[in-house]
Amino acid sequence: DYKYIELDKISEKKGLYDHLIYKSTLDKIAKDSICFSVGGDNYCYNNWHRWETIHEKALKVGAKSILWSCSIEPFMMTNEMIDILKTHHLITARESFTYNTLLEKGLNNVVLCSDVAFLLEPKKTSLPKKFIEGNTVAINISPLVVRRELKKGIVKKNIATIIEYIIKNILLVPHVVMPMDNDYALLEEIYKQIEEKERVSLISDKLSASEYKYIISKCRFSICARTHASIAAYSSCIPTIAIGYSVKANGIGKDLGFEDYVLPVNGFSNEYSLVSMFKSMMKNESFLKDMLQEEMASYKKKANINIKLALENLNI
Questions:
Q1: Beta-sheet pairing, 177-178 with 181-182
Q2: 3-class secondary structure, 101
Q3: Contact residues for 206 (Cβ-Cβ < 8 A; gap 6+)
Q4: What is the CA angle 175-228-292, rounded to 5?
Q5: Burial 252-284 (b: 16+ CB within 10 A, else e)
Q6: Distance of alpha carbon 221 from alpha carbon 233, whole angstroms
Q7: What's the pLDDT score for residue 316?
Q8: Which of 15, 86, 88, 259 has its CA 20 to 30 A from that of 48?
Q9: CA-to-CA distance for 46 and 285, rounded, in angstroms?
């Protein structure tokens, strides 16, 4: 309920309204329920106690509570959070940083998987008229990384610089388009500032995740701030730079051998930071593409572990 979310924002006592925010969900949890927490990074933010509310209701009525395909920032793992995580019936960690940290914290209910999003099938959709298949760069940028930059305006400056450097064929691809966190609005702002638009396209904000994946899969390179946009590229064997702000980008990048192509948002030292990494990616294009093609079949199999364990808990 948005009313209680707004009240929570101004409340000095965090968590006071959690039971009201999720009342409709809490009322539906019964003994035979299985609660899947599927946000991926639900426990990476200061409002993680909201998910604790749902988890505790599940335990109280004898239901199952599963944290699915997740990443958790190590520095966020307080003793309070660890105690709660230990009481989940199952946790599937989508990258090794989270998995290893949870093991070090004494959890024995965690399994290492790949993100289930690697299994998403692309859905064919129309491509922009200017699009050149196999020779286009997809760029996804989010307000979230802009909010986390250390030097004001540095992310947008880097995007402007990389566009000027590439300019031949570029797609600006939104992924999250919620009112509070809208990629499209930011990309539209960037698009309007581009003088030479002949080879630059802004993709609609009305497509599904499968359709965005189809478009990204037809590109040559991608630069992504959103984790699931980068996963759409990785799983399509498209060499990718992930603009990272948390453990999930670093962990997934490391597990795929792309740790050198994760650019932390606090690593934007000047307006050429992104161009420098992109030049390196172009230089190593064949190697990186071959590495993804060799790795992807087994990596997707690890994503299937999420499905297998889910079905086991559903007794299917």
A1: antiparallel
A2: helix
A3: none
A4: 130
A5: bbbbbebeebbbbbeebeebbbbbebbeebeee
A6: 8
A7: 55
A8: 259
A9: 38
| pLDDT at res. 50 | 83
What dihedral angle (degrees, nearest 10) is formed by the CA atoms of 120, 123, 126, 128?
Answer: 10
Cα 21 versus chain centre, distance: 24
Q: Is 200 helix (H, G, I), strand (E, B) or coil?
A: strand
- In the sheet that holds 262-264, the strands lie side by side as 200-202, 170-172, 137-140, 221-224, 240-244, 262-264
Name the CA dihedral angle for 128, 129, 135, 136, rounded to a multiple of 10 degrees. -40
DSSP state of 179: T
d(CA 127, CA 234): 20
Nearest to 193 by CA among 237, 224, 157: 157
Residues in the chain: 316
Q: Which two tokens stand for residue 158?
A: 């880097």
Each residue of 165-224: pLDDT tens digit? Answer: 987 789 999 999 988 889 999 999 999 998 888 889 999 999 999 999 999 999 999 999
Dihedral (Cα; 118, 119, 125, 127), 10-degree rounding: 30
- Tens of pLDDT, residue by residue over 63-84, are 999 999 999 999 999 999 999 9
Give the distance between the most distant pair of CA atoms in the chain. Answer: 60
188 within 8 A of 202, measured Cβ to Cβ: yes
Is the full-model pTM beyond 0.85? yes
Residue with tokens 């064949």: 286
Contact 225, 204 (CB under 8 A): no
d(CA 184, CA 86): 38
Torsion of CA 300, 301, 302, 304, to 10 degrees: 100
> 83, 75, 74: which is closest to 109 by C-alpha?
83
In DSSP terms, 91 is beta-bridged to 67, 110
Q: Which residue has the tokens 């009525």?
A: 61
d(CA 176, CA 186): 11
| Dist CA 15 CA 9 (whole Å) | 10
